[in-house]
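Field reference: sequence -> structure
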Amino acid sequence: MQEDKEIKAESPAVQAHLAIMQSVIQRMAANSASSKAWCIGLVSAILVIVADKGKPNYALLALIPTTLFLVLDAYYLALERGFRAAYNSFVKKLHEGKVVAEDVYWVTPEGPLWKKWVCALGSFSIWPFYIALFAMIWLAKELVIG
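Structure field:
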């Protein structure tokens, strides 16, 4: 019977599971960085077009993608935290000898995602970047364009 067999850390299935979890965590971190890069590019393009047209109130349009990317960035951070928690939980169960076959084939973030998303919104990796971007939009509207 497969259930009676203890799943060991050296098992190829366990090693593959850990590699998949690490890959997902890395992908979420890369997505977060990518969303910041896209946000800067899009906001900069909007501000250049607005400056070219000479309509300072249109600079506020840049707030829309900034807000959307803030939400998306927080989502990726929440997913990353959920997968890190799942990874740590799996490793803890592995060391305690409590891993079952279902654990090895289940790749999902741990905990309620919406709670992690709310916490991620207050993260230090989110707010300094987006506050600076909101300030840049306001300064561009008031000082440069207007």
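Note: The longest helix spans residues 12-53.
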